[in-house]
Design a protein that fits this description.
alpha+beta, single chain, 6 helices, two-stranded antiparallel ribbon
Length: 136
């Protein structure tokens, strides 16, 4: 079997399927963490939990019911709230944390991002145009 033939058959099989979304990737990563913990803890329940998480992740990746999987993924991302950037891209979230400081406007509570290490800054809120000073 030629290399191109195998790739073509794989692409045909994957056509119309969900593919890896945030919930599937999170489930798979959580399963890997549980397996590593289980290497030291030796608790059989952890192995079964990891197996269920891997099966669920594979189910999500191979699902053709795109609308249901999309709704579930959106609900998962909404439930994550402020932790969402750390789950989706931890390296970018770490860089953001080290480079910028997030402050709230004193009048409308809008979050404003200011660069770190610049001393005292006068910031204008993009929502209500209020000017206030912050220490970066």
């Amino acid at each position: 079997m030629a290399s191109g033939d195998w790739q073509r058959k794989m692409m045909e099989w994957l056509r119309g399927r969900q593919g890896p979304d945030d919930l599937a990737v999170f489930s798979m990563n959580l399963a890997i963490v549980i397996v590593v913990v289980n290497l030291f803890a030796r608790v059989s329940v952890l192995g079964w939990i990891a197996l269920v998480l891997i099966a669920y992740s594979m189910f999500r990746i191979q699902s053709k019911n795109l609308s249901s999987r999309s709704r579930e993924n959106a609900a998962f991302l909404k439930a994550l709230g402020p932790a969402r950037p750390w789950v989706q891209n931890p390296r970018a979230a770490w860089t953001e944390l080290r480079t910028y400081k997030h402050v709230r406007c004193s009048s409308c509570r809008q979050k404003v991002r200011v660069p770190r290490g610049k001393g005292k800054l006068r910031v204008t809120c993009p929502a209500c145009k209020t000017k206030f000073e912050v220490k970066s």
